[in-house]
Description:
The complex is a heterodimer.
Chain A: E1 5-7, E2 10-13, E3 19-24, E4 31-37, E5 44-50, E6 53-57, E7 65-68, E8 75-79, E9 88-95, E10 103-104, E11 108-112
Parallel strand pairs in A: 2-11
Antiparallel strand pairs in A: 1-3, 3-8, 4-5, 4-9, 5-6, 7-8, 9-10, 9-11
Chain B: E1 4-7, E2 10-14, E3 19-25, E4 32-37, E5 43-49, E6 55-58, E7 61-65, E8 71-76, E9 85-91, E10 101-102, E11 106-111
Parallel strand pairs in B: 2-11
Antiparallel strand pairs in B: 1-3, 3-8, 4-5, 4-9, 6-7, 7-8, 9-10, 9-11
Amino acid sequence: DTGVSQNPRHKITKRGQNVTFRCDPISEHNRLYWYRQTLGQGPEFLTYFQNEAQLEKSRLLSDRFSAERPKGSFSTLEIQRTEQGDSAMYLCASSLGALREQYFGPGTRLTVT
Amino acid sequence: SQELEHSPQSLIVQEGKNLTINCTSSKTLYGLYWYKQKYGEGLIFLMMLQKGGEEKSHEKITAKLDEKKQQSSLHITASQPSHAGIYLCGAGLLTGANNLFFGTGTRLTVIP
């Protein structure tokens, strides 16, 4: 399978704990995006990378959120001190470049109790 | 995103019927992308439109972008239960922007 993969698929954590998600993009794609989707809503942009450089961050990305793409391949999204409002589906997408179609992974569903 | 509106918000059709759903923006669309999503899963890319008046087809699905690049329609011919899901349009709303804005989608149910 050469699509975008995300791990874990589901994560249940207690409020205040830290969580980390991983995204493996399509191998030749240099752009990688993170989105968040809550129930009944469309995805909302969080941040994107071109290769290893994080070039844009949404104001939705509070100080508790950090994303990395250390070698320009896979990316991680960490949420520190989780809050119940962080419960959502976290989606990763990748593309070959600007204004190209973005291919999405299956998402990581986070539940904060 | 409040910038993109889907209509209708939900649609129930009998298998074999044709249907059209729309995505409307108050701003110029810099790239319009149609996706399909099953509940609890990721988005599946369907088609991308960039030029005003552009039309693309894949299997039984046809998407169009109007000349003013502020509205797109998605037409499904002879619907099947496999077409059921949530159809989302995503768009660049700022020239040079790298992220997509999404509407809340149209939920399609196809009754066998």
